[in-house]
Design brief:
- There is one protein chain.
- This protein is of the alpha+beta class.
- The chain has a single domain (2-68), classed as Rubrerythrin, domain 2 (Single Sheet).
- It contains 1 helix and 5 strands, in the order βββββα.
- The protein has a 3-stranded antiparallel β-sheet with strand order 3-4-5, covered by helices on one side. Strands 1-2 form a two-stranded antiparallel sheet.
- β1 and β2 form a beta hairpin.
- It is globular and about 35 Å long.
- The chain binds zinc ion (ZN).
- The site of zinc ion has 8 residues, from loops.
Length: 70
């Protein structure tokens, strides 16, 4: 379980992942800010804010990945 602190408003959210490594978009439940998180070995490595446009793009990439996963 990873506690993610929003870089903008400081709201904490608990995340749990099946995989130990994760890079992907998140959205703050409180201030609705978008950011990219990077997790390595169950440790949060970075949390970069991003624009809504970038978020949409990321979502499309994720959707594509899911589509091609077998
Ligand atoms: Zn926030």
């Amino acid at each position: 379980m990873i506690t993610l602190e929003c870089p903008k408003c400081g709201a904490e959210s608990k995340l749990s992942f099946v995989e130990k490594d994760y890079v992907g978009p998140r959205r703050c439940w409180k201030c609705h800010e978008y950011f990219t998180i990077k997790i390595e070995d169950n440790v949060l490595k970075s949390c970069e804010p991003m624009t809504e446009e970038e978020y949409q793009k990321q979502q499309e990439i994720e959707a594509l990945k899911a589509k091609f996963k077998k």
